[in-house]
Amino acid sequence: MWKRVASLSPLISSKRSSTLNQAAYTFKRFESFTTETPAQGKVGMFFKGKTPFITFVLGGPGSGKGTQCEKIVENFGFTHLSAGDLLRREITSNTEDGAKILDTIKEGKIVHSEVTVKLIRKEIDSSDNYKFLIDGFPRSEENRIEFERITEAEPDIVLFFDCPEEEMVKRVLNRNQGRVDDNIDTIRKRLKTFESLNLPVVNYYSKRGKLYTINAVGTADEIFEQVRPVFAAHEELST
Ligand SMILES: Nc1ncnc2c1ncn2[C@@H]1O[C@H](COP(=O)(O)OP(=O)(O)OP(=O)(O)O)[C@@H](O)[C@H]1O
Ligand SMILES: O=c1ccn([C@@H]2O[C@H](COP(=O)(O)O)[C@@H](O)[C@H]2O)c(=O)[nH]1
Ligand SMILES: [Mg+2]
Fold this sequence. Notes:
The chain has 239 residues and is of the alpha/beta class. The chain is 45% helix and 11% strand.
């Protein structure tokens, strides 16, 4: 089990979402991680002396999360963990959960939290990086609570790519990557799921003062110019 062993509260001035109040921003920091289970001691070993920096990347289907994550990786050295990609990899590896995951994705629903958190945690445990972008997760309050329960960690920051529905639909239909969920029927279902289950998570982090809302309309480069200062402001803390 990961343990948060210290909590610092430096005040940082940076551009915050207009949807947030401008109250001082409290960073939940992890001075180091320890582990209660020696067999899973890698987290403790890798993060010894480093401060893990976790970013959740949220937004509707096709809002540009994956595209912007690539740019953040290039510019700020994060490890990108797309929850959707991890689940799709699980489908192709013919594991026990694979068939169920495929059905869930086709229906635009959310895979059981335990499955997704296990996959994310495995990736973090086996990484020698300490800066993570967790893309497309948590998808629901249940996901969020399970992540916190299992890892005893919270994200340092949360990005939210705010995009109009018609733009998201257009982008997904033009994606052409052969995804089983990139068709109009599933997109409609994904949008409903996003609104009913994912937006409450966005609101939760807004209330917690951790949310950065990015206007996701424009070119990918223009959008990244809104994202860049968020990470630049945190660079000192995440190195
Ligand atoms: N700013 C942009 N303008 C136009 N097209 C974009 C922009 N950003 C990304 N795209 C394109 O839109 C499609 C969806 O982008 P991307 O895969 O990054 O979204 P996503 O939020 O990760 O979606 P999903 O939740 O479905 O995985 C891709 O084909 C991508 O190339
Ligand atoms: O935490 C998650 C992330 C994703 N899913 C399912 O996967 C698809 C595709 O996810 P993308 O982020 O768009 O790649 C999503 O619609 C869900 O069905 C999930 O269940 N939990
Ligand atoms: Mg994506």
